[in-house]
Amino acid sequence: MRIEPFLLGVIATASLIASLYFFKFWYRTRDLLFLCFSIVFLIEAANRTSIMFLRNPSEGSPWTYAVRLVAFLIILAGILRKNYGRSG
């Protein structure tokens, strides 16, 4: 029995829970940075879930890193928007 799918499932579940918490914080404050973090954790949960269903799960795939790059760019955009966006 392989443990990788189990651990990927645990990470996906934790990412989904983190996404829900950040969504709750965004809903209360309407701060765009919380929404960005919620979206990123949701993307990570989907990414880990898709890796889990592959025949040979490998996190070294270029597609995995491409998805993570998009996720980190979303966080960067949220930070830049918060710091340099509309003031007031």
Structure summarized in a few sentences:
With 88 residues, this protein is mainly alpha-helical. It has one domain (4-84).
Q: Which helices and strands occur, and which strands form pairs?
A:
Layout: H1 4-29, H2 32-52, H3 62-84
Describe this structure in words.
The protein has 88 residues and is mainly α. The chain has one domain (4-84). Helix content is 80%, strand content 0%. It is built from three helices and no strands. Helix 1 runs antiparallel to helix 2 (32-52) and helix 2 (32-52) packs antiparallel against helix 3 (62-84). The radius of gyration is 15 Å and the shape is elongated. The relative contact order is 0.15. The model has no long low-confidence stretch (mean pLDDT 91).
Task: Kindly list the characteristics that best describe this protein.
88 residues; mainly alpha
